[in-house]
Design a protein that fits this description.
By secondary structure, the protein is of the alpha+beta class. It has 3 helices and 5 strands. It folds into 2 domains: 68 residues, no CATH class; 56 residues, Nucleic acid-binding proteins (OB fold (Dihydrolipoamide Acetyltransferase, E2P)), CATH 2.40.50. The chain is rod-shaped and about 85 Å long. Pfam families: NfeD (PF01957).
Length: 138
Amino acid sequence: MDVMIWIFIAIMFVIFELMTNTFVLICFSAASLASAILNYFGFDLNVQIIGFIAVAAVLILATRKFSDSLHPVNDRKVMADRLIGKKAEVFKKTDKNTFIVRVEGEEWSAHSNDSIEVGDIVKVVGINSIILIIEKED
């Protein structure tokens, strides 16, 4: 493989890195440049490929912590998960075990096996699809 092909591959990885912002493809770009250097010094294609894999692996492992710091994990609760543990007011009983409750100003369908009446304050203990699971507040 010609040196220019490795350089072209390195440039393509840089372009893709700019589009994705993952900090992984830049490691492949550097590995491509290392393979281009091996090609320049006349090493066999198999050595160039092994060099590419080795340099890419070392760079990815070495920069993993830095890469993770660029994209911190978002552990905020989303959607209805934020309602677990909140108190709710029962304002409509639609069935023996099915209710409409108001939690933080929002109305939700709810289910409970407890003996609950309209006006009771309940606690959200879980979610099943879009239905809150509630228990009577002690």
